[in-house]
Amino acid sequence: MLDLTPEQLLTTTRAVRRRLDVDRPVDRETIRHCLSIATQAPTSVNLQNWHFVVVTDATVRAGVAEWYRRAWQDYSSTPLDEDPPGEASGAASSRHLARIMPHVPVLLIPCIEGRPEGQASGELAALYGSVVQASWSFQLAARAHGLGSVFTTYHLDYEREVAKLLGIPYDAVTQVALLPVAHTTGGDFRPARRRPLDDVVHWDGW
Predict the structure, then answer these.
(1) Stretch 133-155: mean pLDDT
(2) Buried-most residue among 28, 34, 125, 180 (CB within 10 A)?
(3) C-alpha 148: how far from its chain's center?
(4) Read out DSSP for 24-76?
(5) What CATH number corresponds to the domain at position 46?
(6) Does the pLDDT at position 187 exceed 80?
């Protein structure tokens, strides 16, 4: 495990795209351990109704990655294999991740029992809040063990197709994200630049 204080862990767990090491395998037991930590996250009325689909088989990973890349391309005006001049760093980073997605050693898909269609906002908050907290706990645990990850959602445009590929019962279970997970190239992650706190904090009202 990395020698990080709790504050360092919380402020340096970044969305890792460019620095995922696709050539280094990830130990299965490390993923299991991080998921055991994730399942300690709170869930609505303690239902514990999350599920985590861990994809490590190369052929299946490639299938999931193909749907992710198709969804990514739907939002881009330039082909995936091109590098548009002057492209913003965030967009270039997203492009890089789409390119390497088939080679990332672990693809983790957090899921939650139930479907969002037709639910009220409060019910949706409980549905997604139950699994997003667990996903973040996984990412923190993974960071502590030298792994990088990023919470992505492109593939959800083809959620039904990915559900069929992975045998997820689409009518009863909602996929919430796709987390590519790998060791990182270097560990010198730092806190990100953020908006001033006083711009986003409101005391006793807006």
Answers:
(1) 97
(2) 180
(3) 10
(4) S---HHHHHHHHHHHTTS--GGG---EEEEEE--HHHHHHHHHHHHHHHHHH-
(5) 3.40.109.10
(6) no
